[in-house]
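Input for the complex:
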Amino acid sequence: MITGLRGRDMITTQEWTTEELDTVLEVAKRLKMDRAMGVPHPVLRDKVLAMLFFFSSTRTRASFEAGMAQLGGHAQFIESKSTQIAHGDTAKEIGVILGRYNDGIAIRQVDWGSGNSYIRDVAEASRVPVLNMQCDRYHPFQALADLLTIVEKKGDPREVTLDVSYAYASSYQKPLSVPQSLILLATRFGMQVRLARPPEFALMPDVVESARANAESAGGSFEVTESFEDGIRDADVVYAKSWGAMLTTTDEGESASIGARYQDWIIDEDRMALAGPNAIYMHPLPADRNIEVTDAVIDGPQSVVYDQAENRLHVQKAVMALTM
Ligand code: CP
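Predicted:
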């Protein structure tokens, strides 16, 4: 277990060592157990987290806010559209000023090409830790919750074959950050990772290269396939969700019409039957029901989406308790 993490930013798990990430999981399990047992753990009493959102959220907002309250502190909800950011507050001003009011700054900024750099600019100016609640590149807390869920359900991650797959959705062009953070973290922990996606839905080349390097040093594997079924076949974990064709086009309408060619990339019971006998189904939510995944699968016995969503709370509390 690693101590002395106070003050650290969590922008991507790639910037934390495996031992540090193991510590996050250990603390998350302890806090989860404490909550189940009704044991109070106000380790952040009198501390305040600023939560700055440029984009909508259900789980992230609710779990960070609940987590801060359970740790004895407070979270303030700030929406970019109701602040002076639109009238000129810079990232530096946000970092310096919110850093003087608060003990941590959490940010969701998913704009393609600028979300991650905005968060890094705030972090550069801030004297308190900055936590990435999702940007255009990464969603580290989702990936940490996913890893905790997989370990709880499947045990040793080195024995797990994980299918990280594109699935069609019509609601909006979702960021690349969930699959990117997941392939980065799963390969760090030695899983056999398959990325399945149509040719137009590639992930960022530097992220894919890092996933390959992670797999090599952790002793797992990483492969890319353009076949939906090959990704699912014999997998222990089927994690299929939509994302936009950002590397093919930055035009939302064009991305949507490219996606419409792949409406058969939906997880249904026949597809789940291709996976391993005790395979689990995961999705970070919100899902486009009966478009990305059928009701029968997401509400069925193989689905762990509610446990997965719950684990957001526990991993976030762990990182806040360790860093703030
Ligand atoms: N999975 C996730 O980040 O959910 P929200 O967008 O609702 O926060």
